[in-house]
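Case study 2.
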Amino acid sequence: MNFLSFFITSLFLLLNIQVLASNCSFNLEGNKMMQFSSTTIDVDKSCSSFTIKFKNTSDLPIDLAGHNVVVSKSSDFDNLITLIDPANGVNQGYLPPSPQVVGKTPLLGPNETYDLVIDLNKLDLSQEYVYWCSFPGHYGIMKGNLVFN
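Prediction:
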């Protein structure tokens, strides 16, 4: 009987740990229709960091329509999109380094993945944050909100 109680308790704790861990990450995809799979990502404020597990599901070549994820304050978005320039190159996601960028993935080609880890302790959670794609022109459609709960 003690073994059964121990087993059930251990299983319960393991499942709770997995549920808590899953609240600190989100699977996000970008497709060839220039769309993210979600326009909102809910972030648990109790997480010390948050991971966006990003996958480009498009079959289009990176130089024609690569996708990435850039995280910034909503108030910095308009300024940041003016900095997008093909001269910055694919390796920079066409976006020069900027302190206004909270985090970004590289531009990804077909079926490539990247885990973007955001340290929540470095964010001002009273501000609004967005995620978007910095491939020229994509940010008009590929944009979503981070919601802190």
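The CA atoms of residues 32 and 58 lie 4 Å apart.
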